[in-house]
């Protein structure tokens, strides 16, 4: 058995009470160089395979005194490690240890100024007052015995409390959001000084340990297969596998006919030639396009592409397995998946008393009949950590910073039927668009950009004659989490250049428009 990451690195445990900010606490602690993990607030402490260096209790939408509200396992107190409660977490500490919590006269939401009223370890070095972000409707009315007040505001007499002897701290505000400017320093005081966690969570130490872990897990003969798309996650995961087990890792690129212009060739060149990844490309574009014939419904397109992909990938896995066995090599026993930590958080975070908490498994939607064991080298990592890994492993920065690209590819950027001719138009337009925003130095400022082909025709005039051709819409958004997004304010001269190039160079298009809708209510993709 290989050792789990939480047994190798000093780990901070974050218990999630359902706050929208819980994943941000995780991000901040990681940014301090300390490994941390999130679990639902109802997690049983006896199930912990490691002893955390400290515990952070998140905020949450409930009121501790309500019957239906979630409470944590009391064994948290038996671990004897430092505890920091944030908002609901503070209220949970008070509720649990004999304090009192009640509704405030008015809900407090937004900026507040707190005063530090006693010298203490949590606010050490942060000054006598601090700007913070509040979001609560309940307040402490009485603090538990053994505790003292360390911070207050005009309206919250118990904005911060501690029990120094037992190393328990609670704050009413949110240090994890950027609206609390010194929040990260406060978290550093807790994680590094109070918990004594070692700041050794770096991506270069991660690579070495992950390689060892994978070697131990897979053993000396078994083999691994994985699908690659040319995106950063599957490429980084594949590179790690290759470093760990060499050509016993088999990457498969299924050409579904709806990747971007030249993408298949580029992926082949980068993965195979530059990164030395053992790659097989399956040239199945015609099969996909024939199945998509006559289909206009976006959901149907997605299903057809998804199912065909699984079919082809499975038969490819079988073929490679048989071939390897004939060569006297081990069987393919593992399937590589590029699952990231946000997917894991999504599946384990606290969803409320009535919602069942999903298990860790199957995050990536593995087909059950494949009978392969999962291997997920990135499941503890956030996207920016994966990008950082990519940079350390010398993966081209074009690939490391590539915008997200949907599984069904250009098929859902061609509204209406996906024909070879429509694919040609959408691909060429998209290529020109991306090329120009890269030239203008805007690619990294934009979170996602693409061209979509609309199934409408409009009248135009070219060389004195009437044209009746299609419309390309340009989409570019800025976002941090893809849950909400603003449309990008593209400079006019750049749009001008793109528009004139597309109309001149892409046969079949006589009009280009720019999408000025934010998400919500629009989505980022058009289908
Ligand atoms: N529901 C609690 C309150 O309103 C906690 C809020 C929070 O954790 N942000 O006070």
From TrEMBL:
GO molecular function: ATP binding; GMP synthase activity
Binding site for ATP: 229-235
Keywords for the protein's UniProt record, in alphabetical order: ATP-binding, Glutamine amidotransferase, GMP biosynthesis, Ligase, Nucleotide-binding, Purine biosynthesis
Gene3D superfamilies on file: 3.30.300.10, 3.40.50.880, HUPs
Naturally occurring in which organism (per UniProt): Anaeromyces robustus
A GO CC term assigned to this protein in UniProt: cytosol
Domain GMPS ATP-PPase: 201-402
Protein name in UniProt: GMP synthase [glutamine-hydrolyzing]
Protein origin, superkingdom: Eukaryota
SUPFAM superfamilies linked to this entry: Adenine nucleotide alpha hydrolases-like, Class I glutamine amidotransferase-like, GMP synthetase C-terminal dimerisation domain
Higher taxonomy: Eukaryota, Fungi, Fungi incertae sedis, Chytridiomycota, Chytridiomycota incertae sedis
EC number from the UniProt entry: 6.3.5.2
